[in-house]
## 1
Amino acid sequence: MTDSIKIISIATLIILFFFCFQAGIFLFSGNRKKINGRRTLIFVEFFTAFLLLFDALAYYYRGNTSLTGYYMVRLCNFFVFICNFSLPFFICFYVCEFINQSNLTFSIIFHPVKSVRKGIPRQLFIVFFLCFTGIVLTIYSQFTDLLYYFDDNNLYHRSAFYSLSVVLGLLPGLISFTMLIQNKKKLSSNIFISLLVYFILLLVGVIFILIIYGLPCINISLGLGSLHLFYSSIKLIEIEFFAMDSGTLAVSPACKPEIAVTESRKRLVRSHLWQTLSITLGGILLVLLIISITGVTLPEKSLVIDQPYSENDFSKSVCVTFIRNADKHWIDEEDPDRTGAQYDGMIYNNMKSTIITDWEFSVSVPETSTVDPGPWNGTFRLVDGNLIVKKPHEEDAENIHGVDFYTITPLKNLGFGCIMYTPHNYHPLEQKILFTYSSILKPLTNTLFDIFLGLLFVIFIIATTIMLFEGKLIRVEEENRKLENTVKERTKELEEEKNRSERLLLNILPKEIARELTAHPDRTIAKEYPNVTVLFTDIVGFTKISGEMNAEEIVTMLNKMFSMFDERAQKEGIEKIKTIGDAYMAASGLTEDPYNEGALKMLRFAKGLLSDVQAFNDNSPVKLLIRLGINSGPVVAGVIGKTKFIYDIWGDTVNVASRMESTGIPMKIHVTENTKAQTLSYYQYSQNTEIDVKGKGMMKTYFL
């Protein structure tokens, strides 16, 4: 890591730490005043702030070999990993609070079955298990270098299983993301987008840290995401301020849960399972593909070879030979006690999936030895009785073929050599060799990894296909339910409209006539009834009264009175026939039974009309009087017209009833002898009065 990258990383982390810590303090100060939905966000802000602070300190003390630097680097990296595994749990918990629309307590983690029954998403408990596993592995790594290690210069290095920590950190985010998508309908759009942006920032950070080594990409993305959640929560704080007296939790608008049948609910659970599996596998595949491209940096290894090899030993992952060329040696002319010779070294990489990226070779030599200044494929030095050979780096003068030339790819070898002058009795095969190398694992070159990756890909395709299929079925079922609901609503509306039409029709026609007209709209409806009682009534002096009133007052008066008559007719079972001006016509006994009680019902109705007129007069400045005439006998009834049809009755009975009304006395009930004969046992009548009825001659009539 260059100094400029180190300075940029520390500065970025410190700035983000300051803002996240400030956001946490701001939320914490408000949280103490009243209950709200920001408690979990406080944990998110503080844990993010501490993560950024510890990461900045780890960068600052990186490479510091003092005692303080030794402990600070280890402690800070430990807390960075702890915070990295804790944050996904708090984020998942935060999302669950929005989904459940309540302020949850952390104690639900210890009661998973009970909590799931109350509507807490199952994913929360899976995320908790993964995060807890990551924390346990981090603690274990302090003693085994499982995830990372530090070299003698106090520099941090990723271990072979570092990718496992990335996966354990990524899976909770992917699971929380699927949980967010699955419960989108329960969240308002602004809250959903706010949470979605956080996960997108996290994914970008994961991708960059696998590609770019040196920059704290994940931690920077976590800091930006936490600040984004804080600024998004400002709107909720504003809502809480204006709803302070409501006593409700202002986390999300109320959501009306959908009522689903048992089969649909099971399918939805299966769909959510396949969604989680598909997205999780997709994330794992993405990480594995990036790892396959960039490789996995393995810890530095040292081989101590007490009995040097003269040829490659294929049973060893790395084999190193260093021998004196039997054909190229001579006596040193300047020093007869020394022999000059060409020494040939060979590094064999017998690993199938690992590239040796850097290496250092060391072998003991006598103190009087010297090295010719023209060695090849390495930088050669004599230090304290040892020949040190290192891989040429970019800044070295020996780097004449390019740095990549000196890396050793799988199942390949690299030769190096030099001219060295040593005492005659020096034999390199009798010396101890120390070989130190760094390497990168390229998983795609490993058959087992390829098979594993292929199986994951197949499972991913199957899960995605089933997820899409289940999702399609759910959408079809939702559409069917919507269609069924629409049909039910339309049917209900049609039923209501039908009932309104029937009620309207029954207001115009008798029930039997209405049914017959509905069943046979083209048939001519006409019937003869043997014993129908007909009533006529009109207002006495209506012409004079109406002359003293305007049109609106006249209509209002008639409407009020006739409405009272209509209500009584409906209550007494009387069939209203029609109104003509101030006249009101009604009938009873519209049945084929000649011995009906129509006359008795009509007289009861007529007496009620007199009471209605009296009640009207009590509350009206205009005092009215009515005449009533009643007659019983045979009539013909029928419906006239096709569009504006009307139900009417005809015959002498009707004409005589009309004559009874016109010759009657105000506020008296004037009846014929036929009506009297049918009701004599119920009512008392006056002495008969004879009137002249056109076409009938003199008739005896009576007053009730």
## 2
Amino acid sequence: MNNAELIVQILKKVGTTHGFGIPSGNVLPLMEAMRLHDLPFVLTAHEGSAGFAADVMGRMLEVPGLCIATLGPGATNLATGVGNAWLDRSPMIAITCNLQTDQLGRRIQMYIDHHQLFRPITKATLPLREGCVAATVAEAVKIAMSEPRGPVHLDLPEDVALATATETIPEIPGFAPIESASSKSVNAGLEVMAMARRPIALFGSNSMRMRDPGLLLSFIEHHGLPFCTTTMAKGMIDEDHPLSIGCIERGKRQLQRSFLHSSDLIVGVGYDTIEVEYEAWIGDTPLLQIDIEKADVSASVDVKGEVIGDLDNSLEQMVAMDPTSNVWGQDEIDGHRLKFHAALRPSATTFTPHEAIDVVRDILPPEGILTFDVGAHTHQIASQWVAHFPKTFHITNGWSSMGFGLPSAIAAKLARPDLSVVCILGDGCFQMTCGEMATAKRLGICLPVIVLDDRWLGLIRVKQQRRQLPVYGTALQEEDYSEPPAHYFGVPAVGVRDAEALREKLSQALESKGPTVIEAIVDAEHYLDTVFD
């Protein structure tokens, strides 16, 4: 067994199921080890996509996702996906396959210092050297999986990969636990909640990684708390729950802010300010933070209390104690939710993005997975979509990089082949990653990809209009056309111009044995009214 095989064996032992990347000569030893030891290598169209896919694998399977690139431009391309995992806190092992050890540091073709590149966007960047490969990989796994989770970069010289392994497969050290919150802080937090008459719970992205997500539901029902979520925490509790008031800081955000400002306490549970900082919306409403780390806030935020420690343990303690009470009425919560969703669906005589989104939600099973990309449609989907289960709603909010949607859908389908997966993205995002349709076709996965085609970088156009700037540099296509091409890279492509046609084509695509591109020609004028209001 050589060291490349040793690395593969360790990653398989911790549960890694796929590796995403693009090969070069330096990558071949690792690829061959993956072939020999049945850890599938998934060839992507771009290294950035490999990083995004590994990120979502890590989220869904709660093991380190794996992405692989060659040196130089392969590494710089990969950095976009690695940065995504860094800010969104997804466990990942990112391997760059490098020159021979004795060539490192020289001015040789394609060489750069990978450690300098990855240091700002990883939890650690570690060199692999003969004699300490196993210990280094085991340490990388421990770091990646310890809270707050994130990516670890490993740099693998080709001679190290090919050298005969001198180590055995190690026991993986236990992940570093987070200390439990003190009973004193838990009691103090409950006292803050008990004094509030109109508290609202807010779940953020750190809650996605709880060992027992059911504690979130127990917490809000035990204390009778209306709740909202950030974009990434959608689905942690079924949004059809009568206490749900929806997603904040996306479409129709001012309506949500107004309702939150009618509260006298925000209970932030697992709220990571990387999604949106508290001071952007909380106003003078006091905050109780229940999380794995202290609240990152400006001096303007009134922090009434903090329960900092293992999130599962904190909620277990708070559910075991006597419930608090409040004066919220169900009619008030129901009325706001109806008003919010009505505002997201303005009347129109043309085929709109909100119509298309409703069709997808209606057809996709409740447990089906949606992935989407970054742009104006992100705001609409985040607010409009009703998520029913954890890990069925995937977006990047911390990194907010275009190009996430399609590779994340591929990874979600590989992670959960038993579930239906649909990807929605804008035409700008599709142009950036359409090559990944060939990846999906090669994998033979059923994956409807719905392109909301409005011929613009819609979010930037809205920002230009709101700042009273001329619309410039954001047109994706000047001319109109009647039909999309018959296929992309051999993947069937169909065009739709109304809700019924989308319903028909999506239903067919979900029965297909491979991917399908559905180009929905939409009129996105309502984004101007729904995205930032």
## 3
Amino acid sequence: MDYISVKQAAENFELSERRVQKLCETNRIKGCRMVSGVWLIPANAKKPVDERLTEIPKGSDCLSLKDLCDKLSISTATGRNWMKLGKITPEYTDKKTPYFTKEYANTLKSEIQSGKNKALKNRRNKKYISGNSLYNSYVSEQCKNIVVLQKLLGMTEEESIGFSTNIIQYIVADCALHLFAQKLSLPYKNDNLLLSKFLEGNIVLETYGELIDSLIKDRKEALKFCEKHPLLFSLDYIYEVNEDILGLIYISCKNIGNRKATGSYYTPTKVVKKLISKLDLTANDKILDPCCGTGNFLLQLPATVPFEKIYGNDIDNISVKITRLNMALKYDNLSIKTIMEHITEKNYLTDYTESNFQYIIGNPPWGYEFTEDEKAELRGIYKAATGKNIESYDVFIERALKNLSPNGQLAYVLPEALLNVKAHTDIRKIIMEANSIKYLEYLGNAFDGVQCPCIILLLTHTCQPFSTVGMTVNNSGYITNISIERNVTPEYFSFLTTDGEYQVLEKIKHIESAEFLAHNADFALGIVTGNNKEYLSSEKNNENEMILKGSDICKYHINPTDNYIIFRPERFQQVAPTKMYRAPEKLLYRFISSQLVFAYDNRQTLSLNSCNIVIPKLKRAKIKYILAILNSRVAQFIYKMDFHSIKVLRSHIESIPIPIVDEAIQNNIIQITDTLIAGMTLDDAQATYEQLDQLIFEVFDLTPDEQNIIKSAIDGENKFLV
């Protein structure tokens, strides 16, 4: 087949080259394809009908782009990018507004769920993950029932059984019957097919039969399923004290996508036990888990806490049923009435009325998707419910603080983002009004398949302004006890420093004659192409030029790269103003990094979004002097201690003080900096870095003891010098 260029097609179609390129990007020219970053169009291609003039047929029921994005659980911005990249194509366009048929939307959703459509393949937050998996980290490592559940999931896969809500409840009910029979030493404790026998009335579970019945919507349908799949009900479950086997069945069978849509991340038992161990519980303490799931936090409470003091709540109907069963298994001789009163199915944020708890514990939902009506209601109740989006765990914290008695304690498992992300400033303000942190532990990525560092946060409702005295911080086993009052603001909660490190930080931050890059620099993101495989080449030619990734950046200098691109900004998904890339001088830095890594560029080099840009505009500080400060141990000390981040944000860079010293001192530092910019062997770079850093210590007026505190805190890490 013969092909023509975009320019030739534009002449044939009597359109602009930009318009033809757009038609190619949205797959509206049949047979067009991109080769080495250039669109090739079949010579016999016909001019597409201009969809911008297409009218929506009368009587049709179409979806807007926002409606389609909501259906696919993606943002509208992602939807626009997918249109630009040709991943989705509108059926109609009315006054430049795209519309899609419901049939198209349903087909696309189905293809994404099944994996046929790969549009979500590289997305981190996949809403539609098909299939089921054994969530074995939820229980203890010694759990004997893991093997049994592996058999269960294997059987369902072999027989191609889909886990509907009803089927999951049948399996949970059967397991519960086995557990009760073993715990209570009932005559049928070694039998199988217990659910069938229960449904037929051949066995009766005294007192707790009502809890089993709550899981069965239709006895006839349930019995029919049991008879059709007897192997599923022939498993030998084992009663284990304080093991949430029923919950493990539920969350392993429940669709992974559904868990994420409701913000449900079920907490591993080892994390639950760790949190419970930090509580000084007595038999008189009134305890609530307001989002109890299947009740694992309540199961792990010590036996000395009576059920009469325990309360659980959730909005998930099946989870509440399972928690009630778990409490009946944990405690002897409970009445159904007491269980029902203490384990409730309510909206904790709007409908829960019980109060005056000594402890509120648990793992509130993360990223729950509230409806617009729910958001409007929450904004009228909670100070933390501000902005377009409302983070569920923020309002769960605020609600819990209202339900605590004086000196009561809140113990939640939460994302680490609560401590330092700007979106959570309001809840940090609320915490500081009448509470203090008793214990804080950094857990890292504690949930299977979830790349989200999290923490255990234990607050005391002191009814007094925030205080740091007496606070304990556990960072990967390194424990710090804070004995001095620290200056804390809602902008960041940073408690990773010892008292000595904190005092050095305070000295650095308040050095005289320092200026900051806030309002004194231009910042820009590197290029987001939308498809690196399509736009990047590993070979240099006459049309393309070098483009840098974050991994190409070292302290002070840039390593050679084999990535090349044709710079056509209009084709990329996101791009900064061209003048930022083409600035005579600029600093490039790694965006994803646990260390500050800045390099100098005066060659107008392009960069991808893993390599961002800052152009300082301090009148009394030269750019290479600023480079040396940002690459120094002092700056790294601030970044590590204050932000504990793996993403270098603009706000982090803007917070680093730049001491203003005379030109002679700056020139001396720049002279050494130039040798590092030019590049050298690792040994020479290490020695030169030490020489340069000593000068910067002196600029900050740091004593030998203070220098040693900084070195002790950050040395041993890769400095990215070569």
